[in-house]
């Protein structure tokens, strides 16, 4: 029902995971676990960002639409406005 | 990076210990737990070793301790827990412990024995007491029946009436009576009476109501027969005093005896309790001390004795970082500071040591379960900390289930120090407890992937409003209510302006959960996602191999192995990823009728054919694909022949040509002795050892490389397909969730009355039980297993050898009694 932009979520998510994966490693305090924590941050950022990106790109240009039951259409038409 | 990246440096060292201070040095080293001792006397049997006498002494002491422990347990006491770990005792103290323990055991035996004999006597006396006390009263009323019992009639008969009283087991009464009657032919009168209170049977220990009998008879022979019969039936026979006065006198005497005996018994019991208290206090400490002592002597048995220098030599594997600590320990343990440690060069492959904390230990253990990392090769564990829970979560993605899993793990983590959780004995519970951090991360990532899949207990949530507008489609196609009534299902067409308004910002659009063709979309999405993530994971694995090549000074392998591998992977499968992303971006609903199929293009790429109906994705696609295939095929012979040929050339050229092999040779001896089943990458150094015939080595190297090439190339294809299990399991999980909801929980909402509200409670109970049992436990274990397989096989066979062994330092294990 509402128009969703593609650019805004892209920018926000990239910024968020970029913060986690690129900026946060600089602020990890020195200690015996510094290497492990940095590895964890970078891996998390890469995995989660990639997963979200795949999800949004798969829906960006749909080739077909959802097939709904007539009851759903009736409900969605009047209740989802 | 930290020590999790690769194994620490471990060196072989020799300890020189003076005989006098050897024991205390080893004790000191055992407390710190740094070194692994090697057995220098492997061919010597345990009975011929140097310190076999000491070991035997320790074992004898342990036997005494076991006896003391049994006595404690029989008395129903628990030994006091050992406060802190006591050190191994010196020789004099050990002697004292041995003497004391034997003395205590002796005392305990004696006291127990005297107590049991006192008890027996007491019971006998009590039985005896009951015999005259409880014996049937003189049946004056039955005098016409038993006239002989009346002593006043004695003088009428010229025979003396004798009495026998005794106690017999109740089950034997009828047989006894019958036998008496048959044997003595009525020359006796027997009467039986039950004892007023039950007493203990000495043989079986159970309490039985004994039966007291009183037999009156005349004639000596009858008396003998009766006594023999009583003997047969194992009954206690007591004399029966005739007159009333002697009876009462006997009773008082017995009472007195019983009283004395009870007092003595009480004293004995008190003394026994004191002894047991003492034992309970010192036993735990002694046990720990003697166990440590035995361990130290077993280690000392592994050392070799140098007669010329009169010292013991021990060979140990020692982490290089801890050498100063070892020196410290030796200085503390030895009397005159005469013990020292010396590093020794070796060609054998040292054990692997990777230090972990309580968080990383779980992840390291799942990597080690497949194979311990070879010495100093890259450890996959730090990456598995995140990729393993992430891959699990892809197969498990559901917000509700992930939240439950996360909360369960959070409870375990927050209460991990509670002794009740730590000392569980159930093996399955212990497995879950050991993996609590693993489960915590798995739950957390499952919540994230659940939000992306938009599934919460199989229901979608509309955090953002959906991007598909039903109203616009309905208005555009004039779907009136009458039209809807005649058409059970209709499709929204994204070509119509306004129907599709942009991609859902976070995850899958909630309208898909209402659609009947949602699997069409989700399958395509999840399959492509699995392939993309799989290729990224495998590419990462190949890149980790670079660290190995650089560390082991095999830079030729960077060009001759890493490069062809990467080219093969990226030219074929990296291109596939590119096609997937390109199609997502470039093709929309407008060309949905003519949208090309990636699968057909991929197949045509390999077969060098083309399909007229399948339009190209971009101009110039065919020549680009041809170039990529040729590139990939060209990298195969490089991978196959590159490294063997390079090594053959190096071996043929004289050794003085380059100083480089010499510098590399210092690091390489650590690899040389390594022969393992699947270490195809590590045996290339066999050529350096010299003394082997070059042709034989070349054939072996070539064969290893051929196996590696075939494994890699075929593996790329099959492993990519193997990653499709991510799609399969997530589909299964989603379908199971949906079935559980629609067939179980929804039935609770059918009734809208108050009764319906009451019915909802058992329906929810069934839903909850099935969710936990099927979706959390079964699906969780299944996803765990498949994630593990993907890591162990598909990810690790790109770079990991895993042919090492762990460093097991000599340390005194924490108490695990009972």
From TrEMBL, chain A:
It is a multi-pass membrane protein. InterPro entries: ATPase_V0-cplx_e1/e2_su, ATPase_V0-cplx_e1/e2_su_met. It is found in: Membrane. GO terms for cellular component: proton-transporting V-type ATPase, V0 domain. One of its GO terms (molecular function) is proton-transporting ATPase activity, rotational mechanism. The chain crosses the membrane at residues 6-28, 35-58. V-ATPase is a heteromultimeric enzyme made up of two complexes: the ATP-hydrolytic V1 complex and the proton translocation V0 complex. The V1 complex consists of three catalytic AB heterodimers that form a heterohexamer, three peripheral stalks each consisting of EG heterodimers, one central rotor including subunits D and F, and the regulatory subunits C and H. The proton translocation complex V0 consists of the proton transport subunit a, a ring of proteolipid subunits c9c'', rotary subunit d, subunits e and f, and the accessory subunits ATP6AP1/Ac45 and ATP6AP2/PRR. Subunit of the V0 complex of vacuolar(H+)-ATPase (V-ATPase), a multisubunit enzyme composed of a peripheral complex (V1) that hydrolyzes ATP and a membrane integral complex (V0) that translocates protons. V-ATPase is responsible for acidifying and maintaining the pH of intracellular compartments and in some cell types, is targeted to the plasma membrane, where it is responsible for acidifying the extracellular environment. Belongs to the V-ATPase e1/e2 subunit family. This is V-type proton ATPase subunit. It comes from Taeniopygia guttata (Zebra finch). The lineage of its organism: Eukaryota, Metazoa, Chordata, Craniata, Vertebrata.
From TrEMBL, chain B:
Keywords: Coiled coil, Hydrogen ion transport, Ion transport, Membrane, Transmembrane, Transmembrane helix, Transport. Residues 94-128 form a coiled coil. It holds the Pfam family V_ATPase_I. One of its GO terms (molecular function) is ATPase binding. GO terms for cellular component: apical plasma membrane; vacuolar proton-transporting V-type ATPase, V0 domain. The gene is TCIRG1. GO terms for biological process: vacuolar acidification. Its main location: membrane. This is V-type proton ATPase subunit a. Belongs to the V-ATPase 116 kDa subunit family. InterPro entries: V-ATPase_116kDa_su, V-type_ATPase_116kDa_su_euka. It is found in: Membrane. The lineage of its organism: Eukaryota, Metazoa, Chordata, Craniata, Vertebrata.
